[in-house]
Here is the input.
Amino acid sequence: MRRVCATDLCPYNSSPVSVCSSARGNEVRVTGFVSEEFEGLQAQVLGLAGRQVSSREVVERSLRRIEATRRTLNAFRVVRAEAALREADEADRRLAAGERLPLLGVPVAVKDDMDVAGEPTAFGCPGDFPPRGADSEVVRRLRAAGAVIVGKTNTPELGQWPVTDGPAFGVTRNPWSIEHTPGGSSGGAGAAVAAGLVPAALGSDGAGSIRIPAAWTHLVGIKPQRGRISTWPDREPFRGITCFGPLARTVADAALLLHAASGSHDGDIHRPPTVDVVAAATHEPRRRLRIALSLRPAFAAVRNALAPAVRTATLRMAETLEALGHEVVEENPRYGPIGLAFVPRSMAGIRDWTARVPDRALLDVRTRANARGGLLLGGEVLRAARAAEAPLRRRIGEMFWRFDAVLTPTTAVPPLRTGALAGLGTWETDSRMIAACPYAWPWNVLGWPALSVPSGFTEDGLPMGAQLLGPSNSEPLLISLAAQLEADLRWHEHWPEGLPAPR
Here is the structure.
């Protein structure tokens, strides 16, 4: 593998780092310590089980932080303050009685495309949405694991864009720089976890919508195998390209939330075999891996360029993998015409969702245009797109006879500025977002696992991410590899500090 020297952009230091940027007009501090105990998901589980802290205490702290950052970060669409405190008190009673569950008493958040009983599911859209009568299957499973759902996080309309803003709720901002987006479409979830409002959150991923915010907010984000987490009451959201998955600060926390959320509903179409993701986070890979380094994205009829800082960070991640004993070889997946299998399914999913909106006239003009595209690309075109999935799996999967995993950048650029896509036409919006985020969406077509980990910071202190891709049901391998990287790079020790008011 060709090596590059990147010591001038070293992303992780043993002492706190202070990065000043006159261009951004504020100081960003990346710290090497955690100021309070019980910040992570596992730490809270252990603290609650050991009676070192109560569920009411950690839930109250979560709610205080949400309120304190409401005008700055704007991460939440719905906050369940009273309900969450009642649930915390009940969790404390159960803990005092000796009951133990994977997430008993821990506050978590879910994205606003998941049903929570008694709350609306607006999926980023404006309008008067009625409260849902029942929990979605994934929320039911989180409750069964003992989690306290503190709220629902912001997302752009129907999860279409890699930024999180819209007329329904305003602008969601990045804790590392409030002048930049946390990404999308699970940007509210990413902002909430990165700022320590909750220890972990569930997002959804139809074209990188978990992995993009993970990269741009310095988190671990997992898009699991299709069907690993039930999407019921939707059997196949966005015609099979969308799935749910965790965002967390550490690999172990992400694996724990993935474990708690996993499982099938009787109505689900996809039912992958069970895998042990929690155990995978406790050890490095059992053998030396052969990893393909790919910097060339799939063809998407849009010109894109890999930002030098992102390229350097990805190559540095490849060097780290080599230093850990793995073999890294430059090779690109044979993507072929995979874009033709993605667009009709994406547009059909948007059209499906607009049928649930109380007032379509309130939707963004780009949303309405994409819904019309879903009609034009339906029928035979949509059936052909679905039929192409199996041949594409065979074509791309051939490389996993020779490689264990693929390493790519998560995005082509560092975080976009807030408002970067506002006021644009449909084509210009699509062109800009595809150019910024060309690496994630092919794995949604295939339905295979993918994972984003922090790869460092730009000179201005903006987070970047690297993506690990695997074949069918490969979450344990990807998670163990990510855990090995985390033990070496210790990205979880770096937190954003200071949230000045937006200018």
Summary: The chain has 16 helices and 16 strands. Residues 1-35 have pLDDT under 50 and may be disordered.
